[in-house]
Amino acid sequence: MSEQYDVIVIGAGPAGYVAAIRCAQLGFNVACIDDYLDEQGQPSPGGTCLNIGCIPSKALLESSHHYQQAEKQFAEHGIRIGQLVLDLATMQNRKQKVVRDLTGGIQSLFKANQIAFYAGRGTLKQNNRVEVIDHDNNSTTLNAEHVILASGSRPAELPFAPFDGKQVVDSTGGLAFDSVPQRLGIIGAGVIGLELGSVWQRLGAEVIVLEAQERFLPDADPAIAKQASKLLGQQGLDIRLGSNVESVNTDKTVQVAYTDGQGSQHLEFDKLIVAVGRRPNSEALCAGDLALTTDQRGFVQVDDHYRTNLDRVYAVGDLIPGPMLAHKGMEEGMAVAEQIAGQFAEVDYDNIPLVIYTHPEIAWTGRSEQQLKEAGIDYTSGQFPFSANGRARAAGETDGLIKVLADAHTDRVLGVHMIGPGCSELIGQAVIARAFGASSEDLALTMFAHPTLSETLHEAMLDVAGRAIHRAPSRKKRP
Ligand code: FAD
Ligand code: NAD
Fold first, then answer.
1. Is 48 in the pocket of ligand 1 (CB under 6 A)?
2. Any catalytic annotation for residue 417?
3. Which among 73, 79, 177, 250 is most buried, taking Cβ atoms within 10 Å?
4. Do residues 271 and 183 both lie within one domain?
5. Is residue 474 a part of any domain in this protein?
């Protein structure tokens, strides 16, 4: 006997749980399967993002930011405190509580939407049958008209630096240290390297980040990457570009050998986080007699409607090509559900916000100046520094800028790039503007509340036509 559903979703991360909820809203009878167990051995839907990614990392970024403010900024505001004490155990417990509350919320949403949740490993078989092996090794077979694969991704491992869970760890290990490492090495100056590096540097670790590429944040606009490099360096993050790690050995310490422009180098650390990207979980998703088409890197191939090569089998989220971001997966989860229901739905891949939650925050949407040059698109630009914004000055958060790129002929906003206070929220204004095809003039003619950080976006838009108010006029841009 097998249980029959309209839709089965394999994976309850942001892509999978959102797909399941949207399918239920559309009237489908839905099951969602997830194999993740928390540290107490309990099923914990929410995927990488809620359990070991977006949420715990942001909890530690917030806590470590408070700690650093108390240490370095309170005195400037006339607030003196006695001896500052770091209670890392409480900080980590708080992080876990935030995670538990949110993953518990997903279980409640499943119940409220009458989605059957199966804790265990799902394997797709012929004719859309799905076998679930639960955590006690019991097998159940489910059947569905449609199957959505949303099994996500896992950290990439370097062959010469296998994870040992103690000294050489992935991002999950790097979120769970029970003491602050004195010397922390990180391989990879990508998003995880910068976020986790910031957490432990703020809490007192000496952090060195080894990055193979010569360019820092190559996908960011060059002006923003330059500011980020300067500001993170001033905070004490030692980012070494052009570093090719050759070997990693462990005994009492972690010894890392690498080469750079100067020759062979050696470093010793107490802990090493390897953050060199993630791989899709596409192996072992299907029984051996099903040939699911993947690309060379293991990403499941889909068409514009998230259809795989298998009949009525779809894939979304980190499992398919594209930026590995929770919000991108969530949008795909909604879109695939609507397409299964016969509705029109599409994701705007040209307007995906990317945020790096360092301090200050880095965020962008659309094309960078370099990408526009490479594509031969004529553009105009405007920018405005947070140092000339009243609210930023009141907050003592004056580092950074917002830069706008607009089409030289139509004035349509092609890209918005920012580094500064509150940029994870400010970028949403740019995403909305671009979603409605706004021109820089549309935003220049919009009223923003004073005094707010968002006036920096307004001024950057005004600056496209050389009419920013709170800065000296640029000679090149007289209106
Ligand atoms: P996942 O979240 O990976 O979920 C897949 C789920 O499927 C997992 O629970 C997995 O255990 C389960 N699964 C796999 N195979 C099976 C199977 N056969 N049967 C049953 N279950 C299975 N993104 C952002 O947008 N913002 C951030 O701030 C951010 N921060 C991050 C910080 C860190 C440290 C990390 C590691 C990632 C971060 N990300 C962030 C990326 C984000 O977590 C992923 O893009 C997102 O989780 C992908 O969602 P998904 O649903 O595709 O897959
Ligand atoms: P990443 O792709 O952002 O960065 C990996 C970095 O490692 C790159 O700069 C790469 O050049 C470098 N690298 C690769 N191999 C190397 C080697 N052998 N030696 C030295 N450097 C090497 O990947 P990540 O930081 O691991 O993050 C994984 C994914 O998780 C990303 O796709 C990201 O989008 C997502 N994520 C997003 C957020 C966010 O949205 N704020 C936060 C964390 C993670």
1. yes
2. no
3. 177
4. yes
5. no
Residue 190 CB–ligand 2 contact under 6 Å: yes
Question: Is 362 flagged in the annotation as binding?
Answer: no
HSE (side-chain half, CA atoms, 13 Å) at 284:
7
CATH label of the domain that carries residue 186: 3.50.50.60
Ligand number, closest to the Cα atom of 159: 2
Same domain, 239 and 305: no
- Ligand-binding annotation for 19, yes or no, is no
Tens of pLDDT, residue by residue over 216-239, are 999 999 999 999 999 999 999 999
Is residue 345 in some structural domain? no
Domain that holds residue 366: 354-464
CA angle, corner 36, sides to 189 and 146, nearest 5?
105
Nearest CA to ligand 1 atom 23: 325
189 is in an annotated binding site: yes
Specify the pTM: 0.97
Q: Please give the distance, rounded to the nearest whole angstrom, from the Cα atom of residue 254 to the centre of ligand 1.
A: 28
Question: What is the structure's pLDDT at 2?
Answer: 72
- Partnered with residue 416 across adjacent β-strands are 365, 404
- Pair (175, 251) in one structural domain: yes
Residues recorded for the chain: 479
Domain boundary among 276, 300, 323: 276
- Which stretch of DSSP H or E encloses residue 442? helix 440-444
Tell me what percent of the residues of the chain surpass a pLDDT of 90: 97
Ligand 1: does its nearest atom lie under 6 Å from the Cβ of 274? no
DSSP-derived 3-state class of residue 254: strand
Does residue 300 have a pLDDT over 90? yes
DSSP structure class, residue 388? G
| The last residue of a domain, from among 230, 261, 276 | 276
